[in-house]
UniProtKB/TrEMBL annotation:
SUPFAM superfamilies: Restriction endonuclease-like
Protein name: Putative restriction endonuclease domain-containing protein
Domain Putative restriction endonuclease residues, every copy: 20-156
Listed Gene3D superfamilies: tt1808, chain A (3.90.1570.10)
Pfam hit, one: Uma2
Domain of life, per lineage: Bacteria
Higher taxonomy: Bacteria, Bacillati, Cyanobacteriota, Cyanophyceae, Oscillatoriophycideae
Length: 180
């Protein structure tokens, strides 16, 4: 068995800059290259609706980013949605890093196990303060807070009502707009 060397975020970024992965959807997860599944129309449209909804809620309060990379500890995933600190000029020369990220969201339709395990561990290890999974198949929002080492200490599941994120608690988010 051959053990492949794990890549650093910087090494991965250098490879991306060469255009080697231009025709493939690749993420760096815990030092490993992972091919991202193609999006179903349902997932893509859910992501588009989420992006537009969050733009209306967080305009001038956060940089709303859809399906763009974030640079974490040994990982550079492309979460479905990120709320990051303003001004957006911060990201002209770098992707948002943990200290820039208010909220990170993954939309799960066929990737729930991956989002609940590998992705959750990566986000907790990187000290992402709040991670949400929109579980489209089971029509629920799963919220993780309080990262400690490779896991989150608090988990909450919602099917309706309103919720807010830690960083911007005055903005109420309608759960039904996320899960349907």
């Amino acid at each position: 068995m051959i053990n492949a060397a794990k890549l650093s975020v910087r090494e991965y970024q250098k490879i991306v800059e060469t255009g080697l992965f231009a025709d493939r959807r690749i993420e760096l997860i815990d030092g490993n290259l992972v091919e991202v599944s193609p999006e179903t129309p349902y997932h893509a449209n859910s992501n588009n609706k989420l992006y537009k909804y969050f733009l209306t809620l967080f305009n001038n309060l956060a940089d709303v980013r859809s399906a763009h990379p974030v640079s974490l500890l040994n990982s550079e995933p492309q979460p479905d949605l990120v709320l990051a600190k303003l001004p957006d000029i911060l990201y002209d020369k770098k992707h948002p890093e943990p200290e820039d990220i208010y909220l990170l969201i993954e939309i799960s339709y066929s990737t729930l196990s991956y989002d609940l395990n590998e992705k959750k561990q990566v986000y907790a290890k990187s000290n992402i303060q709040e991670y949400w999974i929109i579980d489209l198949e089971n029509h629920r929002l799963i919220i993780f807070k309080d990262p400690q080492k490779e896991d989150y200490q608090n988990k909450l599941e919602l099917n309706d009502g309103f919720v807010s994120c830690i960083a911007l608690p005055d903005i109420l988010i309608e759960v039904n707009k996320l899960i349907h």
